[in-house]
Amino acid sequence: MRPETLSIIGFGAFGQLIARHLRPHLALSVCDPCVRPNDLPQVDPAQAARADIVVLAVPLPQLEAVLRAIAPHLRPGSTVIDVSSIKVEPARLMLDLLPDHVGIVASHPLFGPASAAGGIAGHRIAWCPLRGRGDRRLAAFLKARGLQVIPTTPDQHDRDMAVVQGLTHLIARSLSRLGPLPRDMATRSFAMLAEAAAMVQDDSPELLATILKANPHAASVRQRFLAEAAGIADEL
């Protein structure tokens, strides 16, 4: 029995995190136009598409081009998984552009290189099976690695993330523009808020744009939050 193969298309910070935790269990390869120092096989999109599992860890604006590049080369029975921070648009693109003979899962690991620095066990991953039957076996594999697999739909995911990520990043960026934050006089609650903000402070501009603009529910949640904050200030 040959080991199951997995290709990672997009080897940025999150692609590298995936490789670090999955390489003991699967035969990995990497596809990225920017060759970053590592000892994994470097492949082109056509070769990456021939793996049993293809993980798409690319920024949302690049997703459509990647899907078109790999679609003709995907093997029957393989599974394609994206890890974007939103799910409605990636799910639509994958269903529209990928052949019927492959399984599709829209996923969102609810952690990143900073929050999972000590390991992925105990962290959560949003899991939206869209086509095929391979998702159950993959979900069991992830659970065995210590992840909590949370079934959801693309639309429900984006509604929840408009609050969870949209407001977190909005508050984090707002705090950063206030200048150096107090340290000596900080309360425990403020220290926790500053710590949460620091965890997302170094996220890429592409990720920020995806979270704050590409999520179809983000704008309305943001407007409600700002209106409530302004209302509280007016009441005082």
Automatic annotation (TrEMBL):
Residues 4-236 form the Prephenate/arogenate dehydrogenase domain. Transmembrane segments: none annotated. It comes from the Bacteria. Coiled coil: none annotated. InterPro entries: 6-PGluconate_DH-like_C_sf, NAD(P)-bd_dom_sf, PDH_C, PDH_N, Preph/Arog_dehydrog, Prephen_DH. Keywords: Oxidoreductase. Pfam families: PDH_C, PDH_N. PANTHER family: PREPHENATE DEHYDROGENASE, PREPHENATE DEHYDROGENASE [NADP(+)]. This is Prephenate dehydrogenase. It comes from Paracoccus acridae.
